[in-house]
């Protein structure tokens, strides 16, 4: 049965979608069956796999509104073992529609129940907000990965994010433990990068797993989406690709050891 992992941070530009696309791709290359659900109305994870988001009929929006099942919305990518459920701008109106539904916070959770046996991992690319879509993602998720950009204000807003996760756990009785904290756009050569990494480890202490793998600031990671390809397909030898391959290995080791369940 799949582990559903929400990739979450309410701050934009932290590498959330880049992580969803490339970590999923790396795991698929290691023989895992992986699904990415794009829950961001911008649809960047969708286009990152070369899917033309505005030409897709069955999107996550149609799933959430009951117009189609999630099985109908699954799209096979060019990477064996890796599928995606697409998103586009239509999803931006879903928050208002979902708020009128009884049990609106469980819609995504119920939708994914029919497909969990088909995958090893299901990643949810969560929108950069703390609204109804994000609540749906947290309720559906078994765990959370939080990408944090290696910048001066890296931990700004982290208290609000952790509080939101805690509220979902206590009020909606749906725990989403943090699987790991991932440092992105990291440059170990700079003092700032090293200081931020130190601050992140100090902030979370021993309470949360901080991934040993860090994601570098790498131009190939920025170029790949414009070609409709994950970075590890666009240029497997780049430092960005190698970082996500190492992250996939680390995640597999964590799961096999049972240290982070």
Q: How is this structure best described in words?
A:
With 261 residues, this protein is of the alpha/beta class. The protein is built from twelve helices and seven strands. A seven-stranded mixed sheet has the order 3-4-2-5-1-6-7, sandwiched between helices. Helix 8 (158-171) links the parallel strand 6 (143-149) and strand 7. The two termini are 14 Å apart. The mean pLDDT is 92.
Shape: globular
Q: What's the pLDDT, averaged over the residues?
A: 92
> What is the number of beta strands?
7
Biggest sheet features: 7 strands, mixed
Radius of gyration, in angstroms, nearest whole number: 17 Å
Number of helices: 12
Termini separation: 14 Å
Name the structural class. alpha/beta
Main-sheet strand order equals 3-4-2-5-1-6-7
Low-confidence stretches: none
Give the SSE order as H and E letters.
EHEHHHEEHHEHEHEHHHH
Report the β-strand fraction as a percent range.
Answer: 5-15%
Helical fraction = 40-55%
Put the structure in a nutshell.
This protein has twelve helices and seven strands. It has helices at 16-29, 44-48, 60-64, 70-73, 94-99, 107-112, 132-140, 158-171, 191-204, 219-223, 231-234, 239-257; strands spanning 3-7, 34-38, 74-76, 82-85, 121-125, 143-149, 178-184.
């Amino acid at each position: 049965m799949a582990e559903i992992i929400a990739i979450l941070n309410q701050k934009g530009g932290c590498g959330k979608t880049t992580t969803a696309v490339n970590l999923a791709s790396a795991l698929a290359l290691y023989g895992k069956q992986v699904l990415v659900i794009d829950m961001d109305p911008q649809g960047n994870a969708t286009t990152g796999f070369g899917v033309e988001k505005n030409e897709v009929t069955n999107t996550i929006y149609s799933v959430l509104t009951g117009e189609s099942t999630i099985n109908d919305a699954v799209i096979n990518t060019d990477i064996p073992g890796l599928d995606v459920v697409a998103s586009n701008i239509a999803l931006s109106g879903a928050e208002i529609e979902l708020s009128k539904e009884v049990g609106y916070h469980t819609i995504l959770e119920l939708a994914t129940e029919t497909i969990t046996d088909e995958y090893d991992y299901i990643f949810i690319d969560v929108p950069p907000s703390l609204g109804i879509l994000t609540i749906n993602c947290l309720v559906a998720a078994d765990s959370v990965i939080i990408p944090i950009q290696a910048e001066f204000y890296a931990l700004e807003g982290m208290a609000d994010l952790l509080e939101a996760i805690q509220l979902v756990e206590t009020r909606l009785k749906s725990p989403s433990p943090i699987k790991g904290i991932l440092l992105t756009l990291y440059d170990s050569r700079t003092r700032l990068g090293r200081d931020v990494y130190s601050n992140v480890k100090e902030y979370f202490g021993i309470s949360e797993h901080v991934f040993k793998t860090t994601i570098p600031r790498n131009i190939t990671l920025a170029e790949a989406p414009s070609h409709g390809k994950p970075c590890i397909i666009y240029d497997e030898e780049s430092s960005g690709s190698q970082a996500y391959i190492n992250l996939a290995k680390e995640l597999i080791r964590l799961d096999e050891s049972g240290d982070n369940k």
